[in-house]
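Worked example (supplementary).
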Amino acid sequence: MISFSCDYLEGAHPRILERLFLSNMEQHRGYGQDRHCEHARQLISKACGRDDLDIHFMVGGTQTNMTVISSVLRPYQGVVCAQTAHINVHETGAIEHSGHKVMTINTADGLLSAEQVRDKIASHYADPNIEHTVQPGMVYLSMPSELGTIYTKQQLTDIAQVCKENSVPLYIDGARLGYGLCSDLSDMTLADIARIADIFYIGGTKQGALMGEALVIANKAYSKDFRYNIKQNGGLLAKGRLLGLQFEALFEDELYWQLSVHANHEAKRIHDALVSKGYELYTDAHTNQILVYMSADKLETLSSDFSLDFWWREDDRVLVRICTSWATKSENTDRLIAAL
Amino acid sequence: MISFSCDYLEGAHPRILERLFLSNMEQHRGYGQDRHCEHARQLISKACGRDDLDIHFMVGGTQTNMTVISSVLRPYQGVVCAQTAHINVHETGAIEHSGHKVMTINTADGLLSAEQVRDKIASHYADPNIEHTVQPGMVYLSMPSELGTIYTKQQLTDIAQVCKENSVPLYIDGARLGYGLCSDLSDMTLADIARIADIFYIGGTKQGALMGEALVIANKAYSKDFRYNIKQNGGLLAKGRLLGLQFEALFEDELYWQLSVHANHEAKRIHDALVSKGYELYTDAHTNQILVYMSADKLETLSSDFSLDFWWREDDRVLVRICTSWATKSENTDRLIAAL
Amino acid sequence: MISFSCDYLEGAHPRILERLFLSNMEQHRGYGQDRHCEHARQLISKACGRDDLDIHFMVGGTQTNMTVISSVLRPYQGVVCAQTAHINVHETGAIEHSGHKVMTINTADGLLSAEQVRDKIASHYADPNIEHTVQPGMVYLSMPSELGTIYTKQQLTDIAQVCKENSVPLYIDGARLGYGLCSDLSDMTLADIARIADIFYIGGTKQGALMGEALVIANKAYSKDFRYNIKQNGGLLAKGRLLGLQFEALFEDELYWQLSVHANHEAKRIHDALVSKGYELYTDAHTNQILVYMSADKLETLSSDFSLDFWWREDDRVLVRICTSWATKSENTDRLIAAL
Amino acid sequence: MISFSCDYLEGAHPRILERLFLSNMEQHRGYGQDRHCEHARQLISKACGRDDLDIHFMVGGTQTNMTVISSVLRPYQGVVCAQTAHINVHETGAIEHSGHKVMTINTADGLLSAEQVRDKIASHYADPNIEHTVQPGMVYLSMPSELGTIYTKQQLTDIAQVCKENSVPLYIDGARLGYGLCSDLSDMTLADIARIADIFYIGGTKQGALMGEALVIANKAYSKDFRYNIKQNGGLLAKGRLLGLQFEALFEDELYWQLSVHANHEAKRIHDALVSKGYELYTDAHTNQILVYMSADKLETLSSDFSLDFWWREDDRVLVRICTSWATKSENTDRLIAAL
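After joint prediction of all chains, the assembly is encoded as:
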């Protein structure tokens, strides 16, 4: 049985395990204040082209989102995002649990537009009983989106401009940031993201690490006392070195980008096969995620050899997600293509 | 200047002021444990046709909603309601502030259907990663709805049935319950509400009281330790007698229903005038609220003598709410009709 | 049966009822934006000797405390107060419910000292794992304290100085502020309070109003968007006029101070009688509250004619609170003294 | 420089790294639903002598505590614990952040007594205004305590009895459970803990794992929907296998106990050396933690070669924690003893 159901099926890239092994008996101060974390911060800063970034290593995405968002918002503020945003649908209401409304915008493809964000914010300020409604206090978006689609530099710049005009920070969830930036449709670098976003994170869990996300606070206004927030939200890993050394491995020798390119390449091969065989795609993805319609029968047949990710049923067909990763073996991609 | 902008413009019905005056120097135990509260509970129980109800007096609607909903839900649960629900749009995210997601359903007229509720709940339980999504833990609806529309007994009974099948309580926001039950379209009594809902409240603020809502917990499963929740949410009025004596006045001699009938009657006159003059109604309201389209010019002309409630602009016209109440004077209704 | 058990036994001072009656059919905009609230704000500003205050009318004390404290603190901050503080013992954990730790200091008499506050704050900043502990973000104290003791101007000024040095605001709970400022031991005026505190409230509920507290934000840094916080915490009274007109009555013609002086005078008479009869006082109170030890037998005897407030048992004696108020009749005081 | 400052200085026991390496390219379902987690659950169940336990793997202690406590308590309830409890002093108010008061009891040695717990609970129910105070809803204790002291079976059984009588669950924080149970003073086994506690966790982070705690819900009443709580609190690790395989390693071949015995043995050697040299101990510890007074000069001298954990200054001496662990090398213990 070969699984293409998600991008966190395997452990970690061998170079990470090697570092874990080599550093194991070193004694380090806890909570992210060790040498490996420090070095990883330097590597990420360099990749971002800036030396004034505030970088923290977190264990997982939901934890990162809830910590960041609740640290920025005032009690009466909410976070604006797409209806399909991870924080809206797949985090068990962690944002609401922290006291804040998730203010959704309907989108066709999981991507917000600057116009939509402007309207959402403006509609609040136009309300005559303004204090009876939740104030937009942050804009959240994922790059790539939960539907595998990506933003262009212009689109993100426009959204950031709306945010700036309204004094609302822009937060980018980069759980799959590498896959997004390495997409053949992307015209951005990590440095662009660091310039455009106030806060963002560089995903590790889905990008080759055992676990971990590198949170980057690019706008110093949101840095004050941030470690208190991490601790209070249960996210301050005692052996923080585990996170640091993984990002050291990922950001030395361009490993992070190589793994991203590999996953996208394998996805592209599947994508092209699907198109050539007449399957209908849900979104025209160019990252490591493919959303495709197939008959329920076809899915059942495939399921004897492959594990895919069932999303939902629509009449007589089903929507399925096929996911590659840094760990996808080319021969497994070949097998899947043959079976499609 | 005459205002039809809402139903809490004036103070209170004279009989309430009279009681306030007469009881003023009585010494009473605080926090709702006085003789007036006790008597008001008896009167409401009688009007509900039951003697096993747990009744609490609260100061306002938002406070009541947040206290009830957060007392019932487990941390990972949310409350299902219409997109237009008061808790979703006009309570500054009080429900989210208490840690819970508001799970909305789009409706044309502000009314939920049993089918919609069933689907909403079922879609949660169909999710393969069920614990990644918020669990529906309560259904909230308003009678009448925020758009002035009302539920029939059959509609509410069907929703309650879906709730029961899913072990999810039904909570009815009755901020304007009197106006709703006295609508010419209503086929329900207060006793029906007490039989159908697990929890509901009988609005006082918009129905002739200075302030106050009578919360009725009809399902004993939700009564335990409820007063702790009221106190913790800042809702335990020190001089609880003020709430008790107002509901004594409202539920003696049918005053509550008389005031409701009066408001609806005045609204009906305005409604009929609007229809006869060709205005387009947003919803065909039969309570004390009328949502009507008019030209921006017409609204401006009216605004020299009348205060109406502007909701929003749609192209070249505006949506306006006209509201009557227990206090509306017939001669003012006459003037408004003449001016329309 | 005559009660001296608390200071919110009766309704309201007649001048308040009169205003309620006279203004009843006026039509007013809701939520504290009416003419009466505006006028009351002017009167309070004048009494505070400043015209730059941000004043809001709230319904009750717990609601006021939770709204103020949660609006000021960052998520990882707590509020420093005496172990006996109302927010620590008698608000059902409302502060913790809003997400914040109550950081207590043990005191003999319910009063904080500048030294204690300095040490409490310093001990946090001395912790090597600083972000593992709650950061002090506000100082809360009550004037008079929950034990009926009062601060001198010097004591409050010293505490305020420590607060300023540490960039931590000082919030004064004035549920019984009138009784405190009119104490024969007090050397302060309302203007002093407005100069010393960043935020404070002037109690109405226990000082002659039906209900209501006037919240004064003296430090503009805490004013931004405050009304959102009130609404979100369920504290924005629809008919806000009710609060405004009560504070109009209290702050016209010095009524607030007259009522305070009266209550203190009656308490002094009881206090002197207790002392002359050899009762042991718990704190040497000079406001409207007396904490006194008596034998359990004596309390039982008194209880046939008087309702007093039992606090706790200590060996063979009990601690009892005797409370006067604006409404205490002198003949009832006479009767109590005779019975002691 | 050799560190004895805490028990999470190194990576993980080699057998854990080996498993990580061997299982790395296996494809596993996420979120704790893989084969390794399943196997680890069986091993732990067996060590607990029961097959009806609900076991979850969490990443860290603060996260575990906040998830468990907030899942059990009703909004108006708090958790009873020692003043020195980890949740009270070193989790940045995570419990309060989840909405609940930490209700502390002063202790001399970090250990609660049944009598203290009974009194704490009884004092709540004796309050005449019961709903104005926080209701005790859970008892939390650490075994061993934060001061390195341990409970006997009788002591824990007595506390559990008080809990049962009051329908309040007992939760045991076992961050260092192995060190506690392997103390020469302990008369308990893991099976005893599983019989006495309603919920407890078996620490991994400080006991030889990279990270991770095994949470055991022994009382089924608290199991319902627990995974939602984990996810909502950001604690559901995507690659849950990492936690499962670590506990597989620890609970196969008694590794967990061997590592605990080793750490305690090294601590005993240091403890005996301290006693023989006349140092004053703060608590007479028999686990892996030693709290000892020394002169500030002595600490400074030691600090050139050893890193110890400074707790606080008392007059002219300092309190220092010396910590061994599964990873402590005997030759380093020798060196420290020589230097003392």
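Two points are worth noting when inspecting this output. Chain D has 14 helices and twelve strands. The interface with chain B takes residues 31, 70-71, 74-76, 98-99, 129, 131-132, 135, 225, 227-232, 236 of chain D (CB under 8 Å).
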